[in-house]
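Researcher: We plan to redesign the surface later, but first we want a full-length starting point. Tokens attached.
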């Protein structure tokens, strides 16, 4: 049994701004189910939803500040959660990183540096709890200083640092270095310095014993200029200690057979019930009810990373074909306006909802025939896995986790029952349009289509599989 201290700035259902929270809420649970002794540590934000009772555990003196450590549990699990309680830094309303206008909190460097220092004290058992981890597993830039500070300790635990998205690095002006009172031996270009700025993520990339990211393909991609954001050289230098482990999905929440959001549940053996969800989806979006028209779905942020511009370029031609298209999402205001305009122009073919709605997201996955996900980059991605589980054929670009979880439909992959989607290479509208046409040809051959659906529905996207790979990694350290 390993003792694991799991460090994160967000975890579902306690607090969530994105995919990081999904991973950090699910992976610790999966590790606990494999009989590991795991503690999750997170700042005690004002917006934290803790359903379980919270008790005071111990106090620490860090950086001339008095910090309390509180204990609770991750809802519906055996995972112990330690909350770093320092109201001056964490008792802010709403989002952990930005204020209500979307501007980063002015003292983010101080807030997360203090969090990292507290984690180091806990990891070295200086709170005298008679519990010292074998492994400290840190996630994203907010925890990046932990491996750096631990590197200065005698008899320290092993460290793992997971990159969820290289685009977010925690860069701060050099003036913060003195303010944060960082040890001088960490401040140099091979350490925390990045082009005369302080880089939190470099703490994880330079000093951790092993770096993981959320898919094998993304681990390779971030070693190139296109995806490395200036750190590709460092990542390539560390490639012997860098690997990708694909995220799992919550199989209880996303199961077409038991999904509480669906009126018509279905499985591989009752796949024809999927049509009822399609009918319901068409009704909900006021589209003509027609079970034979191919229905495309999209759920996601309307930003360039997700390839929304490619879809917009394709849509006029796509909507001239016999198709329907539903979209749920929000993001770039210009993109929002453009999709609204198109939906007004083609009311019988396209319908949208700006915003997010969990029950509608489940119905779109269940009721669509085809799911569009033409991302420019995608560290892991979840919707392509949900889609396959729901017998909905994903169209994805060959990047990151999309490349690792969707097998393109070709004569040989159809023959050997591995085909589960449509994959295209280039991030341009003509490649996307070609794959849409390919999907329509396959849709017109019911036997091939059903084969693809069943292949996707049989795949194992469980967290257990991922947790076993993390466990093997911990053991190797």
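Model: Full-length starting sequence:
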């Amino acid at each position: 049994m390993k003792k694991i201290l799991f460090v994160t700035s967000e975890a579902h259902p306690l607090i969530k701004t994105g995919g990081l929270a999904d991973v950090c809420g699910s992976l610790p649970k999966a590790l606990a189910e494999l009989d590991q002794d795991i503690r999750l540590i997170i700042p005690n934000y004002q917006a934290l939803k803790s359903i379980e009772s919270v008790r005071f555990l111990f106090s620490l003196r860090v950086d001339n500040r008095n910090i309390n450590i509180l204990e609770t549990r991750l809802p519906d699990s055996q995972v112990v959660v330690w909350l770093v309680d320092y109201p001056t830094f964490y008792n802010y309303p709403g989002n952990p990183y930005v204020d209500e206008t979307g501007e980063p909190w002015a003292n983010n460097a101080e807030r997360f540096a203090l969090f990292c220092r507290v984690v180091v004290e806990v990891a070295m058992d200086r709170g005298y709890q008679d519990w010292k981890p074998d492994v400290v597993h840190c996630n994203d830039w907010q925890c990046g200083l932990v491996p750096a500070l631990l590197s200065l300790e005698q008899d320290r635990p092993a460290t793992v640092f997971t990159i969820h998205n290289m685009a977010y690095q925690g860069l701060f002006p050099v003036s913060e270095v003195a303010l944060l009172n960082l040890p001088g031996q960490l401040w140099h270009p091979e350490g925390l310095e990045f082009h005369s700025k302080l880089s939190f993520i470099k703490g994880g990339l330079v000093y951790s014993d092993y770096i993981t990211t959320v898919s094998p393909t993304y681990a390779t991609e971030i070693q190139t200029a296109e995806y490395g954001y200036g750190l590709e050289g460092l990542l390539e230098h560390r490639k012997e200690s860098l690997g990708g482990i694909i995220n799992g999905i919550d199989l209880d929440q996303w199961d077409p057979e038991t999904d509480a959001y669906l009126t018509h549940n279905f499985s591989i053996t009752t796949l024809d019930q999927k049509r009822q969800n399609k009918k319901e989806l068409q009704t909900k979006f006021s589209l003509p009810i027609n079970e034979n028209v191919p229905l495309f779905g999209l759920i996601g942020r309307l930003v360039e990373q997700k390839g929304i511009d490619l879809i917009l370029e394709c849509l006029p031609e796509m909507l001239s074909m016999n198709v329907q298209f539903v979209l749920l999402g929000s993001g770039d205001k210009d993109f929002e306006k453009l999709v609204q305009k198109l939906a007004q122009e083609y009311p019988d073919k396209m319908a949208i909802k700006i915003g997010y709605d969990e029950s509608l997201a489940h119905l779109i996955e269940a009721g669509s025939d085809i799911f569009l996900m033409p991302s420019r980059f995608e560290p892991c991605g979840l919707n392509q896995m949900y889609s396959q589980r729901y017998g909905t054929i994903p169209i994805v670009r060959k990047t990151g986790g999309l490349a690792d979880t969707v097998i393109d439909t070709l004569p040989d992959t159809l023959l050997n029952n591995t085909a589960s989607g449509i994959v295209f290479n280039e991030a341009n509208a003509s490649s996307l349009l070609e794959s849409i046409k390919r999907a329509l040809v396959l849709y017109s051959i019911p036997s091939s289509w059903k084969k693809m659906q069943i292949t996707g529905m049989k795949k194992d996207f469980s967290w257990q599989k991922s947790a076993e790979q993390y466990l093997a990694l911990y053991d190797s350290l």
